[in-house]
Task: inverse folding
């Protein structure tokens, strides 16, 4: 009873966490991603681009680009507009200006595994293949799965026809009731500004992708300004800042210090860390969406290699061998 009274008081005062009860203004910009897809890095890039005269750190990132899942409704309403906000929400029709960051779900699985170890949510000796089956593929009660989340944002009125022509297999995959209904609701009268970024493209040429963000935000940024923001948001610098500020940032406060929040910051970590069974499980679940986003399926690659090897026949060194899976 006491907890209910305390919660009700917070709601009345607006001191409860905003989350989905956030009041959304039409000029808000949302940095959206499924968890562990590069949202924090994107926040640093944006903050360093906008606040070029300041020092962006884990100690002040929540003030510069706040997280709707970590700030109160009252605090967020008091921010000057236009606001740039971090969100992990699935499709929300109120979000009219969205930068959506997507990442290869195989790397998301690896990153989430080490994140949950850092947060002491799982034991160190839990096999990663069990983690994939029991956690990655099971829908989070709040954010859904990687597939749920990505599909909900991917299809809009502006790109639906393009995607269905481009990938007939995607259109033919009916998905769950929620995925199907949400994707179609997302297309109704859609007039939002939407920028899709791949984490892997951001790693490949960070300045190029940041220039897209600057254009989306209507910021006239020159080469020097882009390069400064990139350098100030590098993985090495963020690791240094994390080590310095880990007790000041709520996400790292109280978590294990031997597993950093900013880990390798590389693509295709799954190649070394996911066993073939886990790869096959993830690709079986989300293969059409991965293919749509340009992520080459390891299972298809292996099948093609086997087919080529079988067609060529066994040479002096024996039959061909697939690289993985």
Result:
């Amino acid at each position: 009873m006491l907890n209910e009274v305390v919660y009700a008081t917070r709601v009345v005062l607006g001191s409860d966490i905003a989350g989905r009860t956030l009041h959304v203004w039409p000029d808000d910009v949302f940095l959206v991603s499924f968890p562990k897809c590069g949202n924090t890095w994107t926040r640093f890039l944006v903050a360093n681009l906008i606040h070029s005269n300041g020092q962006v750190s884990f100690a002040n990132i929540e003030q510069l680009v706040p997280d709707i899942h970590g700030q109160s409704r009252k605090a967020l309403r008091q921010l000057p507009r236009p606001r740039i906000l971090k969100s992990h929400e699935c499709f929300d029709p109120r979000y009219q200006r969205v930068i959506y960051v997507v990442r290869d779900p195989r790397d998301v699985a690896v990153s989430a595994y080490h994140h949950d170890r850092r947060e002491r949510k799982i034991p160190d000796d839990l096999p990663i293949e069990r983690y994939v089956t029991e956690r990655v593929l099971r829908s989070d009660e709040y954010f859904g799965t990687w597939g749920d989340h990505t599909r909900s944002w991917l299809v809009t009125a502006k790109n639906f026809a393009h995607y269905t022509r481009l990938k007939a297999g995607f259109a033919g995959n009916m998905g769950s009731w929620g995925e199907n209904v949400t994707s179609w609701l997302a297309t109704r009268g859609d007039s939002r500004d939407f920028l899709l970024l791949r984490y892997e493209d951001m790693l490949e040429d960070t300045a190029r992708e940041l220039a897209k963000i600057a254009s989306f935000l209507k910021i006239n940024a020159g080469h020097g300004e882009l390069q400064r923001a990139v350098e100030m948001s590098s993985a090495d610098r963020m690791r240094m800042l994390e080590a310095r500020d880990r007790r000041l940032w709520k996400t790292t406060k109280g978590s294990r210090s031997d597993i950093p929040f900013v880990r390798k910051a590389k693509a295709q970590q799954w190649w070394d860390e996911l066993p073939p069974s886990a790869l096959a499980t993830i690709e079986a679940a989300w293969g059409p969406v991965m293919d749509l986003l340009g992520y080459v399926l390891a299972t298809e690659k292996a099948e093609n290699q086997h087919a080529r090897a079988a067609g060529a026949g066994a040479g002096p060194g024996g039959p061909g061998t697939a690289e993985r899976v």
